[in-house]
Amino acid sequence: MQTNGTMASRSKPGFTSSRPKMFLLGITTSMFILGIIALVLETTLEFQQMQLFLDPAANSVWSSYRTDVIIAVGDTIARLMVHLHDSFYAIRLTQLIVLVHSQ
Questions:
Q1: d(CA 71, CA 66)
Q2: Quick check: 81 and 34 in contact, CB under 8 A?
Q3: pLDDT tens digits, 42-97
Q4: Rounded to a whole number, what is the distance in angstroms from the first to the last CA of the chain?
Q5: 64-102 and 19-54 helices cross at what angle (nearest 10)?
Q6: CA 16 and chain centroid, separation
Q7: Exposure pattern of 39-75 as b/e (b: 16+ CB <10 Å)?
Q8: H helices then E strands: how many in the chain?
Q9: Which residues, 6+ apart, have CB-to-CB distance to 67 below 8 Å?
Q10: Quick check: 8 and 48 in contact, CB under 8 A?
């Protein structure tokens, strides 16, 4: 606080002024959204499989094509998230090595 009782303006730039921070926010947000989508799809698929297990004559069970599509979408999202996570840490490790060698 300043002497006149008002809050001083921030001396550091905000979160949105940094491109790397905005990039990380975007990647994190997209990974979160993809994770939620995969979770919902896989949970719904498991519910359908459980319903088929409990009542083999159930009519509301999805077709095998729809089940295969849900499995493929869930697997693709999972692989994408793992690939993005590994790529991010590989880039950070490279930057760290360059930083250590430059000192």
A1: 9
A2: yes
A3: 888 888 888 878 887 776 667 778 888 888 888 888 888 777 666 766 666 676 66
A4: 38
A5: 150
A6: 20
A7: eebbeebeebeeeeeeeeeeeebbeeeeeeebeeebe
A8: 2, 0
A9: 45, 48
A10: no
**Nearest-angstrom CA–CA distance, 48 and 55:** 10
Please tell me the pTM assigned to this model.
Answer: 0.58
The residue count of the chain comes to: 103
List pLDDT tens digits, range 22-31: 877 887 888 8
Distance (Å, whole) CA 48 – CA 58? 10
Report how far residue 79's alpha carbon sits from residue 83's, in angstroms, rounded to the nearest whole number: 6
CA angle 30, 39, 28 (to 5 degrees): 20
